[in-house]
Amino acid sequence: MMSLFAFQGAVELGLGYGLLAIGLYISYRIVNVADLTVDGSFTLGAAVSAVLTAAGHPVFGVLAAMVIGSLAGFATAFLQTKMKIQPILAGILTMTALYSVNLRIMGKPNVPLLGADTIFTMMASVVGDKFSKLLTCLLIVLIIMAAVVLFFRTQLGLSIRATGDNEDMVRSSSINSDMTKTIGLCMANAIVALSGAVIAQMQMFADSSMGIGMVVIGLASIIIGEVIFGHSSVLRSVIAVTLGSVIYRIIIAEVLELGMPQGDLKLISSVIVALAISYPVLISHLRMRTLRKGNDRKGEKSRA
Amino acid sequence: MLEISGLQKVFGRGTVNERVAIKDFSLSLQKGDFVTIIGGNGAGKSTLFNLIAGTYLPDGGKILLDGEDITFQREYLRAQHIGRLFQDPLKGTAPSMTLEENLALAYGRGTKRGFSIGIPKRDAEMFCEKLRALGLGLEDRMKTRMGLLSGGQRQAVTLLMATIVTPKLLLLDEHTAALDPSTAQKVLELTQRIVREHGITTMMITHNIGSSLELGNRTIMMDEGSLILDLKGEERANMTVPKLLEVFREKSRKELDNDRMLLS
């Protein structure tokens, strides 16, 4: 069993990556696009946030990360809607391009933030060291949750939700579906970049490869959250995927403590996501097999 | 109200599969006209609707709606004035959103979608009234996900959505063909009532020759992308189903090969 200290650390990370889950929920579930930009925009957020934090502007770093993250989303959306590139490929293109952009922003493969003032040290000076990370993450997550839930109740929000659900219907209701998709992807990547920005300041460094596998980690959080807490409304889903991220981090902390090498984590994450998504197919396949076998046996009996 | 002149559409131009879908098609509708459209498979009826609604762009000709040239206007822009229903009840609604949310989306037709509340209370009350008027008991299921309703219920709601902001033109593409006979009858009655109430200019594709003569005030017949018969007034009033089939045989020099048309 892990210590209380390790548990708190896992919850903090879970909330930080919970933002990633919320962002991915918007693109994957609401806009209905598997957006691979995420691997790049997460690092983009971290890079912007780290560079500005090193320069003494941690809060501005977080805000700037969101704005620039939304530009990454815009690039993917543009490739998808105007250039008619397949959604998956559009995401891969932006993600790959972002790798170079991130190196340019940081100027080197990683930026350490030793001794720099961060949003967490600022919080610590008010509430003390012990819960500063937890409270900061919680505050940011709650603000984003409220903003997302309220936004998807507006007319524009409804239009974006409908775009993911039935694009034909949206166009015939005189809504520009290219526009709604673009706004959705911008929002999603802004929140993903925010996640990167927060994680960079929490871990006190940004690294050009820290975004690898973020799509899978985000999906794992979404699936864990939705299975356990349900997904009947946007409010419920947003809370569920954040808690899913926390649970994912607790599981990871636990298996690491049990001695699994850190390098195996991504393999495990992929297996979890693959199994969870194919779960309904596997179940129906097994059921069919049992039925078929049962029939064969009956057939044999009647012949005998 | 609707002026179509010299409309052309060719698919696969320059390939072995080149096919003229719409050939020099012209039609003029008055405000409040209700036209039924009949014709065999591949006659170009649905292509005509796709050209009017902007799903495809034509290769020639002009479409004027209420004096405005919409020939090459983008689909979502002209959707402000054109309501459309398809044969497939799944096409017209967002399945994982609630009835109320679907209606709210349709009610925003032609407005700018901004940050105001998606479903204000007075709108919700109005939707409830409109649903009650359908007589399907849907007013108690405003929070139900659209995907849980039956095909007939979904089609009735789609009809309501297409007309909740009165469109200048309503396009009905065999919108009752996928429904069972009694539901289809109900949806047809609803269609008639709503169209008459608001005096909406309507075009309806049907495979049912009987109802093509019963409904509306004008019937046109299409074959190979052209208009081959235009019935209105007294001539239409005196027309019967067997006579219409006879006319079709003469005009196109072929049999109506569609069992559905003959049997219904």
Helix share bin of chain A: over 70%
Low-confidence stretches of chain B: none
Report strand % of chain B: 15-25%
Label the CATH architecture of the largest domain in chain A.
Answer: Orthogonal Bundle
Morphology call of chain B:
globular
CATH structural fold name of the largest domain in chain A = ABC transporter involved in vitamin B12 uptake, BtuC
Low-confidence stretches of chain A: none
Number of helices of chain B: 10
Q: Radius of gyration of chain A in whole Å, from Cα? A: 21 Å
**In percent, how helical is the residue content of chain B?**
25-40%
Protein name (chain A): ABC transport system permease protein
Membrane topology (chain A): Multi-pass membrane protein
Main location (chain A): membrane
Transmembrane segments (chain A): 6-26, 33-53, 59-79, 88-107, 131-152, 182-204, 210-229, 234-253, 265-283
Describe the structure.
Chain A has 304 residues and is mainly alpha-helical. Helix content of chain A is 79%, strand content 2%. Chain A folds into 2 domains: 4-260, Orthogonal Bundle (ABC transporter involved in vitamin B12 uptake, BtuC); 264-304. In chain A, helix 1 packs across helix 11, helix 5 (119-127) crosses helix 6 and helix 10 (214-229) packs across helix 12. In chain A, 50% of the residues are buried. Chain B contains 10 helices and 10 strands. A 6-stranded mixed sheet of chain B has the order 6-7-8-3-9-10, sandwiched between helices. In chain B, helix 3 (99-107) runs parallel beside helix 5 and helix 5 packs parallel to helix 6 (181-198). The longest helix of chain B is centred in the last third of the chain and has 18 residues, at 181-198. Chains A and B meet through helix 7 and helix 8 of A and helix 2 and helix 3 of B. Chain B: Pfam families: ABC_tran. Chain B: GO terms for molecular function: ATP binding; ATP hydrolysis activity. Chain B: It is a peripheral membrane protein. Chain B: One of its GO terms (cellular component) is plasma membrane.
